[in-house]
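Input chain follows. Return structure tokens only.
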Amino acid sequence: MNGNDVIAFNLTQHTPKSVINVAILGAESTGKTTLCRDLAAHFGSPWVPEYMRTYLQDKWDSEQKTCTWEDLLPIAQGQIALENKLALQAEQRTSGFLFCDTSLFELMIYAYWYYDDCPDALTKAALAHHYDLILLTEVDIPWVADDLRDSPHEREDISARFAAELTRHHKSFLRIGGDKNERVQQVVNWLEAYK
């Protein structure tokens, strides 16, 4: 966390107006990271990794512990700090795209999924943040186990929750599915409307 922040957890989004930011959301093991990497490579743009994964992998490796309520705001701070940093890099690129492997909205959904609650600051920020395009990954690829994933049989339910909450909060989204190449081509076609 930046020691210059006046507020303990600064969750303000700072995306330059010239940057077209794309958030890729969805249940675990549905290809979000792969799609972000592939799109970044296609457009020569930066992409924002999922900070929660790095944070929780470090916690698991050092303590053999999983996510707790107390981790939510530090994860949110790390995610938005990384997004803001990479948005400035995206501003310098010809394409002007920024691909985000998750957003605070996803973290909010998972907070409610696991804890039936969410810190107020996280909810407020998640609902305030704007993305030019929100993609919801389909559950159409095999689940792959790792240290952090725990819901192989709940992916459809989690995906349905995402769709319901995005709709409830008036956040337009498009579903993305298919193999790697099909997914990239679909997004490339959609992003032509922004140029």
